[in-house]
Amino acid sequence: MKSYEVNFDGLVGPTHNYGGLSYGNVASQSNSQQGSNPREAARQGLAKMKALADMGFKQGVLAPQERPDVAALRRLGFSGSDAEVIQRAAKEAMPLLVASCSASSMWVANAATVSPSADTADGRVHFTAANLNCKYHRSIEHPTTSRVLAAMFNNEKHFAHHEALPAVAQFGDEGAANHTRFCREYGEAGVEFFVYGRSAFDSRYPAPQKYPARQTLEASQAVARLHGLSDDGVVYAQQNPAVIDQGVFHNDVISVGNGEVLFYHEDAFLETDAVLGQLQAKLASKGGNFQAIRVPRAAVTVEDAVRSYLFNSQLLSRDDGSMLLVVPEECRNNERVWSYLSQLTAQGGAVKEVKVFDLKQSMQNGGGPACLRLRVALKESELAAVNPGVIMTAPLYDTLVQWVDKHYRDRLGEADLADPQLLLECRTALDELTQILKLGSVYPFQRQP
Ligand code: SUG
Hints:
By secondary structure, the chain is of the alpha/beta class. It has one domain: Succinylarginine dihydrolase (L-arginine/glycine Amidinotransferase, Chain A). The protein is built from 18 helices and 15 strands. It has helices at residues 26-30, 38-54, 70-75, 82-92, 94-101, 136-139, 142-152, 217-226, 241-244, 272-284, 302-308, 329-332, 335-346, 360-363, 380-384, 394-407, 420-436, 444-447; strands at 3-10, 59-62, 112-115, 125-129, 159-162, 179-182, 191-196, 234-238, 255-258, 261-265, 291-295, 314-317, 323-328, 351-357, 373-379. The strands form 5 sheets. Strands 2-1-15 form a 3-stranded mixed β-sheet, with helices on both faces. Strand 12 and strand 13 form a beta hairpin. Helix 2 (38-54) packs antiparallel against helix 16 (394-407) and helix 16 (394-407) packs antiparallel against helix 17 (420-436). The longest helix is centred in the N-terminal third of the chain and has 17 residues, at 38-54. The chain is globular and about 60 Å long.
């Protein structure tokens, strides 16, 4: 049976702004308080989805969330009408209003960890929503994420959904941003690669000194158990704490894998040789031929990687067996990175072509091409069971662009977040979106009695 990797991209929500909310994420910190352009952000994301769909890749859309999250503000003690809740928060605790307005759900690599059916004990595709426990503004995403995923993958025969892990730092889970899968064919059993930043229960593991390690070993292990993965199909690796301290807040900022290929920076992991050895051996036991493309620091420094997001790229398999690397514009703007990429494609190895996309609005918050997509490997029969409303087509693209142009502002600053009109605009837009994508009532405002 045929199988595919389907990339579901997060649609940027109408409150996209630069809140400076993510300590440890250099872009988020350095662009704090800049004016944003939500309309342009959403259009940039849609343009990538459309371009990849036009190239023949399977592409889907993942809906944004209701923001400002009034219910979250109520839980923090703000009361009154929805407008009063927002105004009180603006007056008394602006950082909390900013957090409740973040459009961070666009980075759907952090929405969940997904294991394809060929890897799981019960032969279903498993999803565990990520608790995103490290940052308050992201920790409020998972309940709606779970409802949206359940509405997209709404078939118990093929899809199993797990709640987010317990919401404590010891089980900090950032989803697929720290998870890669190697395989020969998407529909065949593969090796799932979990990268963690620290251990919460074993002090022998080193940890970063400056910035937080968002993913714990124990969270990754829990996800592997929930999904029914077998030991011979899992490899764990610790991210190098020194690179977390240089701004590599997720593993997908320093490595990316697809098929039999791992593209990684030489400073990405601890005990790299042992890790690569395990990946090689476990993939070989499944008939695969693991290939590692190591990028030396002499060619690209960790700082270059963080600034350009070279590794936050999408490594996509084409029908002829070659791979395409989808990178952000910032890679072309970095001389060392661009010259490395020119050499890479000239070498005649797995990566044959590089495609550049302008994703600046998202990039300024630390979200590149790979952050914006959640990969789901599906067999033909499973793909047929996905809600067809979320699969990208030319007409859906046109509809979504019109929807964005109708509802999104082209400028948003901190003061605008206190405008109760923004909440109404968002709800009107999202209500229409659930009809376009055929999701049903997934948002809190649609579920109130
Ligand atoms: O969690 N930025 C996100 C970026 C997530 C990128 N995802 C992956 N690497 N997979 C984060 O740090 C910034 C929001 C702000 O500052 O307004 C933010 O949440």
